């Protein structure tokens, strides 16, 4: 007889439900959210565990690796599908969630989430740290802008290099403002030092990875965009067609059809929001800052002329993702069969 296990994972404790192939509950228990503790709770002599399922979450990748090492067949389930399956549940508890997950595993009514490799997880951790530091630098600068603006002092346009001198110049002669600006500038300087270290690690990582170097041959794609795409996709073979990556990243339109009603809406925004944002920025760069006219840019400009620039950026983002995945699969650089860019600055964008 085959048995199936559903895990409802929280930070400290995991609710466990074991059912047989007929859907009957065999065992319900709780264990610490540790791979060895969960394995000990579900393992039983003479009981062959066919499948273990858990919902995607903060601990899912770590528990997946640990339970696989314990010898179980494990699937991480997409959270949206699990929530939709439980939408009719009148009483929602962790115990009931574990029961529902076990039944989904038995019936196979769920969508598996790709569990990323350790290298991809490390890259994403670096990218997350960079995003956090960039946001804090921006927040610090905006706080100084607001403090100075209250006294009629306007920063206007200032680059990262001229920011410090401009802030000191405006605060000169105001004792309170001088103290505030100096404190904020010290925080900003420390953030910029740590940001430079993280960006140095990302640059070194991109240079050492042949796939990332291939992706960076695309105009408008730099270190951050290439590494974000590389770490999010992780395994290109899980997409049978290169164009499937656009829907996976939420860059295809929503559609609601019933009878004579057929509504096509905005993009779904499913998948990784960070990668989608990076692709938007790269697409905007291709259509704006990149001087070289490529087939992708000319196609996007035709769309912008026919509709608007915003829709053109979305369309270029989707096609850019498709091209990047095709380049990755074939191992071919973007300029391999075309004239190389006239200047390296035209293709190097962070």
UniProtKB/TrEMBL annotation:
Every Transposase IS110-like N-terminal domain range: 5-150
Record NCBIfam families: transpos_IS110
UniProt-recorded name of the protein: Transposase
Origin superkingdom: Bacteria
The organism of origin for this protein: Marinovum algicola
Signal sequence, start to end: none
PANTHER family listed in its UniProt record: PUTATIVE TRANSPOSASE FOR IS117-RELATED, TRANSPOSASE FOR INSERTION SEQUENCE ELEMENT IS1111A
Positions of transmembrane segments: none
Organism lineage: Bacteria, Pseudomonadati, Pseudomonadota, Alphaproteobacteria, Rhodobacterales
Residues annotated as domain Transposase IS116/IS110/IS902 C-terminal: 213-289
One MF annotation (Gene Ontology) recorded for this entry: DNA binding
BP terms from Gene Ontology: DNA transposition
Entries under InterPro entries matching the protein: Transp_IS110-like_N, Transpos_IS110, Transposase_20
